[in-house]
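Following up on my earlier thread - several people asked me to post the actual chain instead of describing it. Fair enough. Here it is, all 137 residues.
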Amino acid sequence: MRRECVRRGEDAVIAGCIALLKGEEGEEGDEVDPELIYALGGPPARWAITGGESGPTYWLRVWAARGLLYAYDQSASGPIIDALSDEHWRVREMAAKVCGRHRVEDALPQLSDLARDPRVRVQRAAERAAIRITTTQ
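Reply from S.P.:
Thanks for posting it. Predicted structure:
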């Protein structure tokens, strides 16, 4: 992620992650650079550069949220909070981790709800995030 932030600028990386997280990949005018997808997803995202089958689209949202662990600003707060209610548990889990790392206070109500998520990994990520947000540094 550091290399991508140096290469294209942190603001561009954040904007690309937000577009992917919101499911805007491939929409006219909002296409995300395939090299960013590869940087976010690593070898499983090689298809973005070489072509081929991409796999489930929720992975793009997981990778985008993971990118926001490392490159983040306030413009990502709304999309990352929205991702806490994603239909796929891996997206919810990663979004909770991002909220915790960046102490997204506005996410506390959703994190409280996720403490009762059907997936234990999501529950634990939400609980850790809420503790981090509410604990003084």
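Residues 120-134 form the longest helix (15 residues). That should answer part of your original question.
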